[in-house]
Each structure stands twice: as C-alpha cells, then as structure tokens.
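Running this now, will post back.
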Amino acid sequence: MKFTSTRDPSKSVNFAKAVLDCMPPDGGLYIPESFADLRKWLLYTDENTAFQSIAGSLTSACINDEFSPIICETIATKAFPFEPKVRRLSDNLFTLELYHTPTGSHKDFGISYLVNLLETILTMRGEEAVFLDATVGELGASLARAIRGKKHLKAVLLYPRGFVRGLSESDYVWNGGNVLPVEVEGSEHACHEIVRDIFARHSTVEKYHLTVANTANIGRLMPQMFFYPYAFSRLKNQVSGDIFYAMPCGNYSNLVAALYSWRLSLPVNGFICPTTDEIKVDFNGNCEIMDSIISPENRRSADPASPSNLERLEEVFATNSLMMKHFVYPSEVSHSQIDEACRILYRDYNVYADKSTSRAYAASLARKEMIGEDDASVVLVMRDHPALKSEYIRHTLGNAPEMPERISEALCHNELNRPCVVSSEEVLLTMADEL
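Update: finished.
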C-alpha cells in the first residue's frame, strides 16, 4: 500500500516513510492511496479469531509490499498484550470497549502499535527516531510504557507544570531510560505551540528524526481500523440484521479509521455520531462537512501538536461522496438528551458512560427509527474507562465508578524537581544536553 497527502494525491510514499516523516511537506496529512478487498477474509473470522491475529493480518494486507507476513504478525503480537472487549447489553445493543488497557485509554492501542512498528523499521535500517509530543497525562504514560526497553526510540514529552503523570524513575533519560519529560511554565496550549514551532524547523526535525505519537501520524491512526473487524468477528454469528456503530467524534480519528475499515470491505451499514461544529446535517438529512468549503491551499498546515482528522474525513467523502451521504449519520442532541442517555445506560444495563459515550448513545437513540428497521443492531464505542471522566458521571447519576488500581498506578503523579522551560529554545537546549 502506498500513501499520499490529503493535499497532493499525485505524489506517493511507502508506509515506512509516511510513519517516520509523519507530516507531508505540503502541509496535509498522509492517507492510504488505495484499499484491498478483504471481504472474504473478514467473513472467515469469528469469535475465536484473536485480536492479535486480526491486527497482524490487516497489517500484512495493507503493507505486504514492505514487510513479510511474519514480521507483521510479530509487530501485532508485541503491540497487543491487551485487546478490546465486545459486550452484549440487549438483543440489539452491544458495547465495543477500548479501555481494557494499561492506562484505561483507547490511545494505548495506537501508541503501542506505532512504537513496535517504528522499532521494527528503525532496527532494520539501523536508525533512531524521537517522539516529540505535548501531553497532560494519558498519552505520555502510554508512550512511556510502550517504549521501555526499545533501542531505537526516545520521547520528548512536554507537560504543563504539575501535570507529569505515569512515569517511573527508570523512564527518565538521565537514568538510562527513553523519556525526556519537560515541564513548561504555561498551559497545554503553550506546550502545543512549542511543538508546532519545533516541527516548523526542518533542520531540527531532520537532526533528531522527529515524529509524533498522536493521530497526525498515520501509523498511530491505522491500528484503530482493527477495532471494527474485531467487533464484526464477535457479532457475525450473533446478529442477523444491519450493524451500525455509534461513536464519539473526538478529533475524528475513530470515525476515519472506521470508514477505512469499510473501504477494506467490512460488512457494516453505517456510522452514527453526534453533530459537531464541523459535521452537520443538511436540509435533506444527509451528512455534510462544514470545513470542506475552505480549499486546502487556503488552510494552515496540518497541526503536529493537536491534530484533527477532519481533512482525512473530507478525502473519504470526496472519493465516495454519494455513498458517504448515506453512510455517516450525524444526529444533533441536546444536553438533556445526553444526560438521559447516561441515565438509561446505567439504569437499564448497569453501564457507566462518560459524556462522550453518552453523547454517542444519545445520537443513536435519535436515529432509532432508522436503525429499528430490519432488526438492526447498534455497537456503542466506548473509548476510555469511565473512571477517567467520573465528574460528569457523578453529577448526572449521583455516583461514579471506582478507578481500577492498574489505571491509578499507571497515571500516578510525578515530581520532576527540574527547572521549567518557557520557550522552544529552552526545549531544544534541553534536548541537546540530554539526548
């Protein structure tokens, strides 16, 4: 599989370059150039097919011109000592839980895969690379766990002062580890600005072989495609009607990955999501993307610090415009509908749902007439452990889930006892001294 930019489809690169370089020089985002037809293989999977096997097979199908099936299986096996969980709540309602991971976040899947993929590529090339990311917790904790013991990868993590979490003393580069945590005197926005500024310095990017662990990197986004074939393998012998996925939008990475799964011929009937500032419902009830009215040449470059996958979503719509208008189903939901959805999930199914999950479920309830036809089933995507966002749940229900010990340990607070920085120059000086 080759990859092109959202802004210049005439130039293609291989997967290794797209993952290592991460940000195309034209300011766009890397996207797959084409997709294989995997319908026969998808129909062959069932509830006995392990998530690691699905991940390895899909990796091989996507990049078999670069890596052997054995290498692809090895990457997946190392990346995923954990897996999603599909749970049946009723005859026609299921949950796809992505939080059975070390930090309780769905980010663990993409980060672990990206790290093991990069380590494999860099080992084969005899090269090294450095992640540069801003974080307030989960991403940093997940990345630190994933790169422990890796020989070719390091991470520079920028935190607002007081937000360092999930690291151990052995992770620090000054103790022989792979992580250089840097506290910034300022907000998360200030950390993002520093990342943007450093990535704008092309000589620095080349010097350290900088990349990112967020979904601006196609290698972080692609493993999110694995969730939907996995869910289908668990559902195919349990349901006979249509299958719809209801999901939070976030930065649109889950929706884009889901649509990529569909382009691999995943049997699915549609994706339901709440409306956002960018995704609306037009006068005919079809999905429309508001940002599509701005031409790419009049946009800023894609953001390496806090990415949106909206431009990737636009590309899917442009390629399959007629089909997509009848395949993505946004629903406008009110605050009261979101709260009621949270209460229904708890009252009827004993499920704690954070606000983003409740919003997705509310969107599916708003589409109940459509999905009620032909005995259709809804799969509610739950990205993160509800205890991570318990304030909303406690306010809505009067109680909240307990934080699992594994997650509280993975996200424990760290005191660095090192000077804070205020500028890109200070970060670069720290990198020069420590890396």
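Residues 107-125 form the longest helix (19 residues). More later if anyone needs it.
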